[in-house]
Amino acid sequence: MAAIARRYRFGAVLLAAACASAGQDPRFAAALRTVCNMPEVHSAKNVEVVTTTAPVMHLAALRQLLDPSPLTVKDVETLTAVEAQLSGDTPLVIPSRLGCHWRTRASREPYSDALRIEISKIVPAGAASNPEPGVFVRISAGGRPGADIYWLPLVPDAAPIRMDVSDG
Fold first, then answer.
1. Beta-bridge mates of residue 48
2. How far apart, in whole angstroms, are the C-alpha atoms of residue 70 and residue 54?
């Protein structure tokens, strides 16, 4: 059992090192591993992951999820400013050792027949009353509207939180 644990830790270290050497935050690999293990993703036969970050557009919804007090005009202005700071695409390096059988896709366009996964840039802790940094994960039928949106805190053993938002 100890040998298995050592191999797992070694694999995690290699994965983090591969991401860091590619100039990418190793927390993306952890997020991808969590997404890979989600039942709807793990059981799908045709999965693609977009290799650039998705826009961050749900900070107000995240703030309402974590802090249900009414949003003020100042809150909305602050959240909008953070979303603007997090705009723009960032390339993602998709590690091959995650155990997921998915294809990579360079662009969100056009639609496809695959289950599509898109991950946002890392949202810093405190940006929307979130106690830890995290990413938004969009899972859709080939990039079409009507996706499921999840908040994934970037802490060990965090579970994705399905958000009650609409993207189309």
1. 103, 116
2. 27
Q: Which H helix or E strand runs over 148? A: strand 148-153
Confidence band of 168 (pLDDT split at 50, 70, 90): low
Distance (Å) of CA 100 to CA 32, 67, 88, 128, 155: 9, 34, 27, 31, 21
Does the pLDDT value for residue 138 go beyond 80?
yes
Are residues 52 and 117 in contact, defined by beta-carbon separation less than 8 angstroms?
no
What span, in angstroms and rounded, lies between the C-alpha atoms of 15 and 37? 16
DSSP 4-40: HHHHHHHHHHHHHHHHHHTT--THHHHHHHHHHTSHH
d(Cα 25, Cα 22) in Å, to the nearest integer?
Answer: 9
The residue among 56 and 91 whose pLDDT is bigger is: 91
34, 156, 22: which is closest to 98 by C-alpha?
34
